[in-house]
Amino acid sequence: MSRKNKIALVIMISLGVFIFWREARETNFQQVQHGLAHLQWAWLGVAVLLMLFSFVAEALVLKKLIEKPGEPHQPAWNFLRVPPIQALFNAITPFSSGGQPAQLVALIQVGYEGGRASSVLLMKFIIYQLMVLINFVLTMLVGFKQVMTNFSGLAILIAGGFALHVITIGTLLMIMFYYRFTKGVTQGFFNLLSHVIHSDKVERWRNQAMQKIETFHEESLQLKREKKKVIQASLLTLVQLIAYYLIPYFVLLALNVPHVDLITVFCMHVMIVMITSIFPIPGGTGGAEYSFKTLFATFIPGQTALILGMLLWRLITFYLGMLLGIVAMGIRPRRIFKRPINKKI
């Protein structure tokens, strides 16, 4: 890990500690002790296992997409280490932008050629975005009316997160199915931009954009040819997301919260994920805590239990991934392919 990334890691942990201190400063410490003493550790264990399972499911998606018949099989660890590394770098970079390059380096380290690894990660990204969108649309049908009625401010943020995902998916689908039209629109956009910004910069941006469009279109053709792989990877991704979205439900059970409705809690967590996606701060820090506190205040009686629930939820869904990512980077993978690799994260 570079010095810059280490500094970012320290900053994010410090920021998280500050947020929880700020939220808990008026909380009665004896009540916190009482809450921990009566915690249902078995349910909390289920929540942790669901998070670990989501990492395993993501590793299986990667394995399904990248392995080819006739090649030597990679050790399980070579795939299992990739999702935590992604989680770590998502957590320390704005808009989770560092996760994709970190995965690429992790795959190159075990011997996969960079171009092939990039195309597989692109396929994985498309599938993930589609499954997130499907989950969210179903959630909107079930729980958005309640949020709109009780939390109109959050509803705007949720709609913003939804719009961001729709734009992302829409752009990808345009490149896949309307390649020439998308290229024409992109060229037109940069032609207009050249009248406002220095032409050298615009040309550099234009070349980068056109190269990305070209690469993505080529990989989308590969995606269309491997329908069986895509379907299997999509189902695994759906299972991965369901496991992740269920975590707050078991956190609430661990806190002995009465009358917890699984579907409602599931929907609320999907919406929290949508809200955090529009925050540029790494890991959605601040936005995640605020949205959890606001949405789950209706389920959790008392400020102490709410703060404790927020802490446990964030430790499991965010900081556990960071910790496992650090461990994964410390344990080197075993190379199957003989090509020497010197790439470092």
Percent of residues in β-strands: under 5%
Mean pLDDT: 84
Encode the helix/strand succession as letters. Answer: HHHHHHHHHHHHHHH
Main beta-sheet annotation? none
The residue ranges in which pLDDT falls below 50 over 5 or more consecutive positions are: none
Cα distance spanning the termini: 5 Å
Number of H/I helices: 15
> What general outline do the C-alpha atoms trace?
globular
Query: Domains counted in the coordinates: how many?
Result: 1
SS-based class: mainly alpha
What helical percentage do the residues reach?
over 70%
Output the radius of gyration: 22 Å
What is the number of beta strands?
0
Descriptive report:
It is globular and about 60 Å long. It has one domain. The protein has helices spanning 3-24, 29-37, 41-66, 76-80, 82-91, 99-109, 114-150, 152-177, 179-193, 199-225, 227-245, 247-254, 262-276, 287-296, 303-330. Helix content is 78%, strand content 0%. The N and C termini lie close together (5 Å). It comes from Lapidilactobacillus dextrinicus. One of its GO terms (cellular component) is plasma membrane. GO terms for molecular function: phosphatidylglycerol lysyltransferase activity.
Keywords:
EC 2.3.2.3, 15 helices, 0% strand, globular, 78% helix, 345 residues, transmembrane helix, lipid metabolism
